[in-house]
Amino acid sequence: xxxxxxxxxxxxxxxxxxxxxxxxxxxxxxxxxxxxxxxxxxxxxxxxxxxxxxxxxxxxxxxxxxxxxxxxxxxxxxxxxxxxxxxxxxxxxxxxxxxxxxxxxxxxxxxxxxxxxxxxxxxxxxxxxxxxxxxxxxxxxxxxxxxxxxxxxxxxxxxxxxxxxxxxxxxxxxxxxxxxxxxxxxxx
Length: 188
Description:
Elements: E1 15-18, H1 43-52, E2 56-62, H2 64-67, H3 73-89, E3 96-100, H4 116-125, E4 133-136, H5 139-147, E5 151-155, E6 170-172, H6 175-187
Parallel strand pairs: 1-2, 1-4, 2-3, 4-5, 5-6
Helix pairs in contact: 1-6
């Protein structure tokens, strides 16, 4: 087992999985320009609070623009590297970015609300599901988290339609608000 993934007790680490577009950054539709990665207000500062409390931060994102032929996979990787670098400049390290490159018609298992990206991250990073969360701006994000046995928060950013969700799904106005709720649950 990789020692840098262990918490203070020697067990698996908690994580927060974030959707990318519409959750952490502006959703401009099929983002293909690394220079157009713009965080919502307060995102890096909120993420830093989680890192300081020992959470791994993982981005899980559907990138059907690749499967649709709008841009190449290298372009998606460049955008994700821009995200990583901008967060690093703010003192926030992401543990990983997982993306689904498939067209929705392919019915792959990795495209949210499928759980393959989450399951891979859980296995590869040694994540403790009982203390981990998924935060996203759509019903697909929330359902992916719930399908993987994680707690989920819907943020009221990004896409205006939120789909069909159970009434008891936790909702937050922003990432900053979601982080406060996660940390409150930790101590409560």
